[in-house]
């Protein structure tokens, strides 16, 4: 056979792989408004940059329900390409091939993708659209699950891992999203569940109440971003990737900054805390007034976001309400751990009075969750800058990247008040008997409050104890934070001899 004939044979094989779908299965995918597995990769990566790996691999299952199995690429397209010129590895499950189910070779292709990504120090993006385990392959399919989970665990903290749920994410496959750093979900077709709702004891359980995207975006916190249109969702993945380093050895990404480093916002000098919140301050101080909020609907009492300051990626954390609940604490903790693992500086805007405590949160383990947040900030070695805006009380203030937990620089607005609790409550406890006996209780109360604030909670009193590095003009917050981050660029922290923490 001549070389030309061999080439013709090769092209026929490739065509069969790319087009050898069951037409009914392919139509079912398209009818749901989904992109095909290969189109998802095309939209994610730079034009003509995709290189497929393992295209000729096929299922070891020879028959399914008495029929010969047709499994092009074994139901998952794998390879590498670039996003804005940066190397990225990708796999995309194909629901038109055996429902995108995971078998032995399917899993091995994903593991191979991870092996290459770890060696090259490049992120992995996985498109999830699968009915789950391939029952015909039994224990070999289970072994495939284990191999994927093991490899993702190895990659954790080394390279960013992103999962994009475009359809079903059923059973053990859902652990892929749990092991990922960030999960995107199609609000139109995406659903995640460990056990099908019809198998649960609660007879009122349904896919809408257990598996739907809104459940995981706002209640479980498993999903961080959601969009109905897959193309828009994929564009959000590309945008997030522009803020992330390729691996844990890289510095935070740096772009040319066209925004004025010394820009001041006079509006911050008249900031009204009653009608606005810290999100407005974040918008004011970051480059081009633009940021990418993570888990917007989950733990909404706190903001976690990626932004740029002087062109460099920073992790922004801010209190949007005066209390933090269990969800907000868990969200912040996960975000701090990610930023620390990937050398992204942390900037916090603190305005916090207390940790929300109820019977339910106490039973749900808020003490342990808050302890993990304290550990996350204390253990983080990246540059840490905190700006105290107004109230900062008790343990809630301590947890929010305070000097007590190792913040490198702590600034405060003149409006800040730092104390164990608000002045009025403290005075009532400290001078309860004297107030009870006073003829003019209001006058004595006001006198004691003024005395307490001047001695204990005034921003100047706290600065005198060294817990605030400077009291700054609100309008100058941007340039002061940028200046601090520039100084901290060469920060080094000596590592201690331990295998890993146990918190």
Secondary structure layout plus pairing:
Elements: H1 3-19, H2 23-31, H3 37-44, E1 51-52, E2 63-64, E3 67-68, E4 76-83, E5 86-93, H4 104-120, E6 124-130, H5 138-155, E7 161-170, H6 174-179, E8 182-186, E9 191-193, H7 207-210, H8 213-218, E10 225-227, H9 230-241, H10 278-285, E11 291-294, E12 302-309, E13 312-319, E14 323-324, H11 326-341, E15 346-352, E16 354-355, H12 359-364, H13 366-379, E17 384-393, H14 394-399, E18 409-412, E19 417-419, H15 423-430, H16 432-437, H17 441-457, H18 459-464, E20 470-471, H19 477-487
Parallel strand pairs: 5-6, 6-7, 7-8, 7-9, 8-10, 13-15, 14-16, 15-17, 17-18, 17-19, 18-20
Antiparallel strand pairs: 1-4, 2-3, 4-5, 11-12, 12-13
Which tags fit this structure?
single chain, 503 residues, alpha/beta, 8-stranded mixed sheet
Percent of sequence in beta strands: 15-25%
Quote the average pLDDT: 90
Distance between the termini: 65 Å
**How many strand units?**
20
Can you tell me the residue ranges where pLDDT is under 50 for at least 5 consecutive residues?
none
What class, by secondary structure content?
alpha/beta
Cα-based radius of gyration, to the nearest Å? 27 Å
By DSSP (H or I, 4+ residues per run), the number of helices equals: 19
Indicate the overall shape. Answer: elongated
Helix share bin: 25-40%
| Biggest pleated-sheet summary | 8 strands, mixed
């Amino acid at each position: 056979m001549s070389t030309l004939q061999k080439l013709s044979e090769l092209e026929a094989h490739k065509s069969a792989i790319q087009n050898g779908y069951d037409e009914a299965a392919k139509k079912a995918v398209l009818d749901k408004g989904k992109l095909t597995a290969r189109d998802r990769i095309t939209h994610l990566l730079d034009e003509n940059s995709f290189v497929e790996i393992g295209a000729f691999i096929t299922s070891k299952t020879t028959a399914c329900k008495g029929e010969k199995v047709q499994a092009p690429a074994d139901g998952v397209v794998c390879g590498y390409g670039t996003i804005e010129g940066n190397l990225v590895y990708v796999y995309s499950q194909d629901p038109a091939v055996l429902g995108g189910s995971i078998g032995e070779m399917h899993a091995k292709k994903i593991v191979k993708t991870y092996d290459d990504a770890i060696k090259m120090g490049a992120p992995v993006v996985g498109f999830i659209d699968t009915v789950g385990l391939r029952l015909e392959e039994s224990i070999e399919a289970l072994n495939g699950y284990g191999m994927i989970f093991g490899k993702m665990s190895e990659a954790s903290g080394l390279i960013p891992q992103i999962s994009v749920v475009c359809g079903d994410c059923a059973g053990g496959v859902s652990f892929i999203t749990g092991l990922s750093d960030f999960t995107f979900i199609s609000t139109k077709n995406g659903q995640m569940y460990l056990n099908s709702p019809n198998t649960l004891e609660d007879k009122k359980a349904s896919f809408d109440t257990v598996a739907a995207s809104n459940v995981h975006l706002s209640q479980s916190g498993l999903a961080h971003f959601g969009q109905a249109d897959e193309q828009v969702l994929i564009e959000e993945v590309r945008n997030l990737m522009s803020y992330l380093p390729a691996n844990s050895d890289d510095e935070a990404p740096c772009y040319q900054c066209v925004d004025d480093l010394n820009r001041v916002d006079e509006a911050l000098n008249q900031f009204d805390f009653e009608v606005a919140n810290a999100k407005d301050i974040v918008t004011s101080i970051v480059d081009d007034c633009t940021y990418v909020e993570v888990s917007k609907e989950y733990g909404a009492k706190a903001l976690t976001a990626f932004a740029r300051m002087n062109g460099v990626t920073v992790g922004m954390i801010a209190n949007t309400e005066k209390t933090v609940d269990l969800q907000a604490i868990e969200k912040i903790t996960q975000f701090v751990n990610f930023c620390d693992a990937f050398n992204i500086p942390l900037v916090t805007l603190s305005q916090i009075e207390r940790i929300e405590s109820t019977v339910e949160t106490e039973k749900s383990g808020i003490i342990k969750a808050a302890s993990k947040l304290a550990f996350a900030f204390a253990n983080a070695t990246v540059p840490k800058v905190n700006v105290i805006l107004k109230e900062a009380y008790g343990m809630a203030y301590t947890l929010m990247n305070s000097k007590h937990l190792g913040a490198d620089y702590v600034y405060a607005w003149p409006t800040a008040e730092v104390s164990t609790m608000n002045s009025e409550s403290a005075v009532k406890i400290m001078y309860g008997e004297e107030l009870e006996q006073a003829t003019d209780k209001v006058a004595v109360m006001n006198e004691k409050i003024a005395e307490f604030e001047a001695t204990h909670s005034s921003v100047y009193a706290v600065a005198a104890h060294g817990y605030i590095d400077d009291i700054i003009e609100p309008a100058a917050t941007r340039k002061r934070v940028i200046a601090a981050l520039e100084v901290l660029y060469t920060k080094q922290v000596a590592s201690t001899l331990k295998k890993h923490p146990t918190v």
